[in-house]
């Protein structure tokens, strides 16, 4: 395909998805997770961030190397994120931690996906990012993916302090910020089952990105952005 044809194909794809979405939809707000949802786990970015967390705990907090994997797992399960666990049990400068763990050359990991962009751009809903990372990381990721202008706002881990996903309070705060009072008008798209399960419990429609779901984990799932249209329109 020549570059000119390629551009035409993209325009055609964008037009097709606009037509596809230009219908009534029962949802008015969609919350998108960021890491491992707007880009696939195969990019290894999230793996690199977790590696930076280990380095931080070892080098800046002087925690014993052999205890770090166990501590991270424990805090992640008990507090929602490693950072919330570190805050609860140690002295932690959260801003320093967040800056350190996200200090990675994002364009080495991420590539914009024009099809994904056209699909999100065509949604008739209010679209927000809802992430357990911080706004600086979210802004950087969205800029590299060429998606920043498509999101009304970013609900980050500091916005929902002292909570984080999957705590029910974090969903209440996110909805309030979105100006949405009715959870049944909201969708949460996330790669973690515990988040989609929690969103479902609040009354939102939850979509698991990246893998199949079992009963109760989510209301739907997709691994290809093309599939999003059919899922949303079927409700
Ligand atoms: Mg994620």
Secondary structure layout plus pairing:
Layout: H1 3-21, E1 29-32, H2 45-59, H3 68-79, H4 82-89, H5 94-101, H6 114-121, E2 126-130, H7 135-144, E3 153-155, H8 168-178, E4 186-190, H9 193-202, E5 205-209, E6 220-222, H10 227-233
Parallel strand pairs: 1-2, 1-4, 2-3, 4-5, 5-6
Helix pairs in contact: 1-6, 3-4
The structure holds magnesium ion.
Magnesium ion binds at residues 33, 35-37, 190-192.
User: What ligands does this structure carry?
Assistant: magnesium ion
CATH architecture of the largest domain: 3-Layer(aba) Sandwich
What's the CATH C level of the largest domain? Alpha Beta
Helix content: 40-55%
Global Rg:
18 Å
Uncertain segments are 1-19
User: How would you name the CATH homologous superfamily of the largest domain?
Assistant: HAD superfamily/HAD-like
Measured between the Cα atoms of the first and last residue, the distance is 37 Å
**How would you state the average pLDDT, rounded?**
90
Q: Name the helix and strand elements from N-terminus to C-terminus, one letter apiece.
A: HEHHHHHEHEHEHEEH
Number of strands: 6
Structural class: alpha/beta
Name the overall outline: globular
Q: Per DSSP, what share of the residues sits in E-state strands of 2 or more residues?
A: 5-15%
The overall number of domains is: 2
């Amino acid at each position: 395909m020549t570059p000119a044809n390629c551009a035409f194909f993209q325009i055609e794809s964008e037009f097709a998805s606009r037509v596809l979405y230009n219908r009534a939809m029962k949802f008015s707000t969609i919350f998108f997770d960021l890491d491992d949802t707007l880009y696939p786990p195969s990019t290894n970015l999230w793996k690199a961030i977790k590696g930076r967390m280990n380095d931080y705990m070892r080098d800046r907090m002087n925690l014993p190397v052999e205890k770090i994997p166990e501590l991270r797992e424990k805090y992640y399960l008990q507090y929602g994120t490693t950072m919330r666990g570190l805050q609860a049990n140690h002295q932690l400068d959260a801003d320093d931690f967040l800056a350190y763990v996200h200090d990675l050359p994002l364009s080495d990991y991420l590539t914009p996906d024009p099809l994904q962009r056209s699909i999100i751009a065509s949604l008739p809903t209010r679209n927000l990012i809802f992430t357990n990372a911080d706004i600086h990381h979210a802004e950087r990721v969205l800029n590299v993916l060429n998606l920043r202008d498509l999101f009304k706002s970013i609900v980050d881990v500091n916005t929902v302090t002292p909570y984080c996903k999957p705590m029910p309070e974090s969903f209440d705060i996110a909805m309030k910020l979105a100006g949405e009072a009715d959870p049944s008008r909201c969708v949460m798209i996330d790669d973690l089952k515990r988040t989609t399960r929690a969103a479902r419990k609040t009354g939102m429609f939850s979509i698991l990105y990246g893998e199949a779901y079992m009963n109760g984990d989510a209301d739907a799932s997709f691994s290809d952005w093309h599939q999003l249209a059919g899922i949303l329109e079927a409700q």
